[in-house]
Amino acid sequence: MTGALTALALLAGCGGGAGVTAALQGAIAPLVGTQAAPAGAAAAAPADPATSRRVEIAALGLSGTARQVIDNGVSKSFSGPAGFTYTLRDGMLVSTRGLGPDLMAADTRQSRAALRAGGGQAVRVHETLDGLDRIERAEFNCTVSLQGTEAVNLGNRQVTARRFDEECQGTGLIFTNYYWLDAAGEIISSRQFISQSVAYLRSNDL
């Protein structure tokens, strides 16, 4: 009896335990105040490939599965490891939350148009937080160019996709985004710039 009670006690102890455009504001607004999911909640069910993505922010040591939390028909928002969130508008990163030096909003319309056209020039605008939590606005001149086709590993499958590089330059800052597009022109994998401190978000379909 004593041994059984001790075992039960041990088991019990283990068991305790503002955007640049009105459209972007509409896409980003639902993220304000988003709470991180309870610890272990994401592991309660297997990832649904239709509403999940693989994400990585190497500079912060974050990687894992991001689950879709909002789909308003234009933009999709995802909750990633450690509770940060990010929003994609037609596959382009337009905001993050919960990373500190976040990308508060981005106007990526010209960049997306250049991708659809098979390459070209684009101007994008980013709004980020500085060290004093003030909004900083920066404009970048970008060149989008086709690099050819590549085999892309999406974790559960491998596909052949067209790769585009977007080289951007602004005042005191240069970065390059990578995009992999399927035959329909959808962005199935990408590496997109967030901010100087956080660097890049790598994200792909499952």
3D structure, described in words:
The chain is mainly beta. Strand 9 (158-170) and strand 10 form a beta hairpin. The protein is globular, with a radius of gyration of 20 Å. It has helices at residues 2-15, 22-28, 109-116, and strands at residues 52-57, 62-71, 75-79, 85-89, 92-97, 103-107, 120-129, 135-153, 158-170, 173-181, 187-195, 199-205. The protein has 3 helices and 12 strands. The model is unreliable at 1-44 (pLDDT under 50). It starts with a helix and ends with a strand. It has a 12-stranded antiparallel β-sheet with strand order 5-4-3-2-1-12-11-10-9-8-7-6.
Q: Could you state the order of secondary-structure elements as H and E?
A: HHEEEEEEHEEEEEE
The number of helical elements comes to 3
In terms of quaternary structure, the protein is single chain
Q: Give the biggest beta sheet.
A: 12 strands, antiparallel
User: Taking all residues together, what is the mean pLDDT?
Assistant: 83
| Percent helix | 10-25%
What topology, given as strand order, has the largest sheet?
5-4-3-2-1-12-11-10-9-8-7-6
Derived from helix and strand composition plus strand pairing, the structural class reads mainly beta
Strand-residue fraction? over 45%
Instruction: Indicate the radius of gyration in whole angstroms.
Output: 20 Å
What's the total number of strands? 12
Overall shape: it is globular
N- to C-terminal distance: 51 Å
